[in-house]
Amino acid sequence: MLISLQLDSDVPLYEQLRNQIVIGIATGALAPQEKLPTVRQLAEDLGINTMTVNKAYALLKQEGYIAIDRRHGAKVSPALPGDPASMWQIEERLELIIAEAVIHGVDSSRFQEVCSRIFSKMSYRHS
Amino acid sequence: MITAVLSIVALICYIAMFATYKAQTKFKNGMLFAVTLPEHAADHPDIQSIRSAFNRRMLRTAVGMAAAFVPFVLLRQWSAFQLLYLFLWLLLLTVVTVLPFRRAFRDTLELKREKEWFVGAKRVIIGDLRVSMLKNKRAASLWLFAVPFAVAGGLAIWAWLKDSPFYGIFVGGIAVTAALLLTSILMRRSKAIVFSENSEINLVLNQARRRALSYLWLAVAIIENVHFLLIFLHLSSERYDLNGIWMTVILLFAAFPAALVVYVYRSLQAREREIVANDGRKIYTDDDEYWANGFTYHNPQDTSLFVPKRVGVGETINTGTLAGKLLFGGKIGLMAVVIIGVSFLLIRSELTSPSMAITSDRHVHIDYPMYSFSFRSDEIRELTLADTVPAGVKTSGEATGKFARGHFRLEGEGKARLYVFRDNPPYIRLKLDDVVIYYNDKDPEKTRQLYAELEALKQ
Q1: How close, in Å, is residue A36 to chain B by CA atoms?
Q2: CATH of the domain at B220
Q3: ipTM for the complex?
Q4: Which pLDDT tens digit goes with each residue over A20-53?
Q5: What does the CA dihedral B331, B336, B342, B344 come to, rounded to 10 degrees?
Q6: What is the percent of chain A where pLDDT is above 70?
Q7: Which helix (H) or strand (E) is B64 found in, with range?
Q8: I need a labelling partner for A26 at 20 to 30 A (CA). Which of A43, B340, B445, B458 fits?
Q9: Residue A6, SS3 per DSSP
Q10: Which residues on B lie below 8 Å from A57 (Cβ)?
Q11: Confidence band of B457 (pLDDT split at 50, 70, 90)
């Protein structure tokens, strides 16, 4: 799976890295339990500071997307059981996005059309 | 003789510089004059005019440098100054051949900005997760370097046990092997190249490249140890009449590793280009801003120490890193020390001559920087006036077409100290218990006078 980091973005590098790995997991580019490079390997390969990669991995681990094993390196977490209770966090973030969309003149049906298109890209299967 | 050998050295440098920079006029690997360009831009008329301006400048430079070489040939009689001129000419060559290229690079870059030709995303870092993990899987194990190390170490020990004065040559072999091991280690840590959106292709190509290069460095280490063995055998052979043949073999042998390196890099590049072109999902990025001169890379945000060169074959230093700055500075510093040091020694040896003095307490002192020697008159076993100095090789000291000063090994004499002006008989020959000394003055009359004094001393 390719990682593409924009140096001039407002989004810090570690966050871009975290976001791309999350999207990778959801779209199936990264399979459950698939091995990930170690912090040092990835930092060397991207030519960025190990602290940046460390921060991204720590965030992903905290959020439960990956597991870090001192001996075997990092792995994508096994397929999670669905947890619709976590919807409230997502609802919070959606409120901001929809607010911005509405101000820019995007209506409900157009928004849901875009959502369906994005959903169809995600091939993640629950356990 | 030395003029011919050094002229060949100069010719090789000349051809290498011009061939490397002339090749930049072709649109290759998506680049022209080391600027990434879209393919349609390569035929643009403004590019053509940059090209012809470049070719004109290169031609003028080529002719100029060839003409500037003439004084070197003319300085045959003054070997120290001849060598100094060669250093200057080589320095000039490296500076002057690059100037037309730099100009063309800057002009092309400006044109690209003006025409807003788009090549790929700028200021973006691209990586491939699977490749970061598996890129070194098919590379040769670093433990295989034990083989060339064992060969070099074994030869060094063997030579040392044989009491050969030349065992230091194999220490050179160990150093070269260590340098190649370091190269292999740095290569393993270098970034993978993201050729395409297709992760499979990225993996295959990166693994193949690292495999080829890791075995290449091993092969070169072994070849170079054989090379050092040849040099050792030549110096130990004592068949001084074959010096010419040995020298030729040793010099030509260097072509093997050089050709091998170029061949491996070229075929890797060709295969990569072919496979990516077939697949069609090539990744385009625009890194021009980090290549200020076309051939130097400066990117403080990139932690890599080495990146693939845009001009030529191999890797170049990232001067944006601290280690890169140190390496670059160290390289320049080392070159300066060596060139200035050797030049100083050369000038001094040209301007100073050995002198021999006999003191009142029956000691003989030969005075010469770094190779002075004294002995008592009763240590002299034989004293003769010779017409020739036997052929031999230098173990340490100075040997040019005009004089020989220092430690030598001579045919039929073994260990010797020479303080002679060549082709200038007679020569005073002094045999001591463990060394033979040959000495003469620039003026044959003075030599004869000294000989008379020594004869009187011996009574």
Answers
A1: 7
A2: 1.20.120
A3: 0.87
A4: 999 999 998 999 989 999 999 999 999 999 999 9
A5: -160
A6: 99
A7: helix B45-68
A8: A43
A9: strand
A10: none
A11: confident
